[in-house]
Design a protein that fits this description.
Serine Threonine Protein Phosphatase 5, Tetratricopeptide repeat, about 0% strand, single chain, about 85% helix, about 300 residues
């Protein structure tokens, strides 16, 4: 090779090294600009640009070092951008940002951040669902709660809210499945109250429609959920339905429970008389004696007279 050719080769090599150095310096400048950016979104954009630039620099040690550093920085900033939207309650934007963050985590192998993104999806969908519930938009709330539990199935609150919507739609079996998970994750008391009220209210509607057997079924279901409810009147209403069905023994059991739980019931002469008369018909002398004994001093002369005649 003659001298001219050698000089041309060295010149070309020098130009290549110079260009490479220039590319690296530009990448460093982009990286520094990203670090000083005013917003996380702008920083993320510049960090991704710097990543591309450093990769283009080839196998230089310094460039490779920056590439590895950015593999951690980019997912972190991507998640941070999503968090800003969540904090601003801009849930639609947050979902888009989380999708981008999930892609970044997958690209750069950021498993810890990927797990955080998964949880943030659940948090965001739940928050969006609660916002929809506040606006009485049950359809949107339902859709978002379904998505929430896909990401975070052990979210007791989300499962409870989902179960409540399912219950309101008459999908009792699906609601119970959601409630079971909710109960296992801190919402047992809420689930118990929700199911009790559901059956209790259904029982009242059926009783008003004179569907007494169906009413008893719902009242019984409510008591299976909560055997010691706050609403003692369920036993009274159950007793009325049993009475309409001619089931005196069951009626007395329900009404006696009601009297035990409600002090005002124990002073209701009509109630006491019903129990006493049922007891006589059932040949339950002990109960008849107990409740006629309560009526012996009744201000209702007819009731008092009947009680005294029995107690002779």
């Amino acid at each position: 090779m003659d001298m001219k050719k050698i000089l041309v080769v060295f010149a070309a090599l020098g130009l290549a090294i110079s260009a490479l150095a220039q590319d690296f310096n530009e990448a460093v400048q982009t990286f520094n600009d990203a670090a000083q950016a005013e917003t996380k979104a702008e920083a993320l954009k510049l960090f991704k640009q710097a990543y591309t630039q450093f990769v283009a620099c080839g196998e230089e040690d310094e460039a490779l070092s920056k590439v590895e550093e950015l593999k951690g920085i980019i997912p972190a900033y991507s998640v941070a951008v999503a968090k800003e939207s969540i904090a601003a309650k801009d849930y639609d934007a947050a979902i888009v940002a989380l999708g981008a963050a999930a892609a970044d985590c997958a690209e750069f192998g950021a498993e810890d951040k990927a797990a955080e993104v998964n949880d943030l999806f659940g948090i965001t969908y739940k928050a969006s669902a609660k916002k929809a519930l506040g606006a009485k938009d049950a359809s949107t709330a339902f859709s978002n709660l379904q998505k929430c539990v896909e990401y975070t199935p052990q979210d007791g609150e989300a499962q409870f809210l989902l179960g409540r919507l399912l219950l309101n739609s008459g999908k009792i079996d699906q609601a119970k499945a959601a409630f079971e998970i909710a109960s296992a994750n801190g919402k047992e008391a809420d689930v118990k109250k929700q199911l009790f009220n559901y059956y209790y209210n259904n029982g009242q509607k059926k009783q008003q429609a004179k569907q007494y057997a169906a009413a008893v079924e719902d009242y019984s279901a409510a008591l299976e959920v909560d055997p010691e409810p706050e609403k003692a009147t369920i036993f009274y209403k159950m007793g009325i339905s049993y009475g309409a069905l001619g089931k005196k023994a069951e009626q007395n059991e329900a009404l006696k429970k009601y009297c035990t739980l409600d002090a005002s019931a124990a002073a209701n002469d009509d109630l006491l008389l019903t129990i006493a008369q049922n007891a006589v018909a059932l040949k339950d002398a002990e109960t008849a004696k107990e409740f006629y004994g309560k009526l012996a001093s009744s201000k209702n002369e007819a009731y008092a007279k009947e009680a005294k005649n029995y107690l002779k």
